[in-house]
Amino acid sequence: MNILESAIESIVSKQKDTELRNIGEKIIHQNRLTEEDGLALFEKAELPYAGALANHVRERLHGNKTYFNRNFHIEPTNVCVFSCAFCSYSRLYAHRDEGWELSQQQMLDIVKSYDGKPVTEVHVVGGVHPKMNMEFFMELMQKIKAHRPELHIKGFTAVELDYMFRKAKLTVEEGMKKMHEAGLDSLPGGGAEIFHPDIRQQICADKVDAEGWLHIHRAAHQLGMHTNATMLFGHIEKYFHRIDHMERLRKLQDETKGFNTFIPLKFRNKDNDMSHVPESSVIEDMRLYAIARLYLDNFPHLKAYWPMLGRKNAQLTLSFGVNDLDGTIDDSTKIYSMAGSEEQHPTLTTAQLAALIRQVKREPVERDTLYNIVRNYSEADINGIETPSSLN
Ligand code: V47
Ligand code: SF4
User: Fold this and answer.
1) Helix or strand or coil: residue 98?
2) What CATH class is the domain 67-385?
3) pTM beyond 0.85
4) 230 bridge partner residues
5) N or C: which end of the chain has fewer CB within 10 A?
């Protein structure tokens, strides 16, 4: 038994609550948690206990490695046919003069502005514009690939794809195949929000439901594509809804093994129809990351999206199960700055992101979208780089 294993055994053996102690035993022996276990963790586990268990799992899976990638975002539009109550970013078509709509050429120019820069991924995500159809995006991807074939296109949430496929009168399988052939390499995790209909009805009633979201990801997995999954947390959902959400993802992952990463997204309450709902505390946020790491035993990676959490809290998550900090995001993604994130200009250079990770004694590893290692960052690579206290 190594030092880490004996430390976690000692923490579990000292746990006074029998149910929580049994959960700890399961984690040590790599046994799956039940829904009741997940609920008990949310209801009773204090942060140090859940966190120690999650850190044990994180280090068993990844040691100190903390991944990030060099990517950039394209947000084609914020015009959207839907009106999710938590969204601070979208504008209805009738008010499109207040929003933005990029042409194919403008998006291609963004791609070209990265010529010669070592980015590996473009993340394309935006509102659901009634006039930007599947043909438009297929053509865009073909042009991107013609210009830079090796650039990985991670694009379009299940919400955007569901709308495109229905408009094109294609089945999910047909639509996904066409998008894949046009250049789509993988799917981001957005649009999942909270799957349970009782909550979905209140926060995003009109967009694709849980079954539809899972269907789209299953179809992508069946084509050999990888995808991510998110959960929008810390608003009106109860612990039970979080477990229900993660349970549905765990089941699909058992079936397909196509998910790479789970990304909890903390609800931010500025300028949206849920501004009266208070944001969750940092303790609740860290407990959520930890419990997600424990519950989703078949997800290889757990990501904290730093532009939403802020840099310091993102560093903190690395002790509570998280092993991925997304990317350098070399441009200004608006979905969080408009919803109240402290990160109004979410840009970090690669060396700054690596320094952020090193500062909390983890090992920065640059990856591509599929977690192939691009580069390890040694102390020497980041010497003299500003650390977060001076970056904030
Ligand atoms: O689905 C919208 C969320 C998501 C708010 O797969 C909000 O690598 C908090 O999915 N407060 C879209 N969250 C972004 C997304 C994403 C981001 C980064 C990486 C990946 C990936 C995916 O943003 C939406 C919704 O859940 N969101 N408004 C808000 N007020
Ligand atoms: Fe549209 Fe996405 Fe905003 Fe919902 S969250 S209103 S689908 S942009």
Assistant:
1) helix
2) alpha beta
3) yes
4) 263
5) N
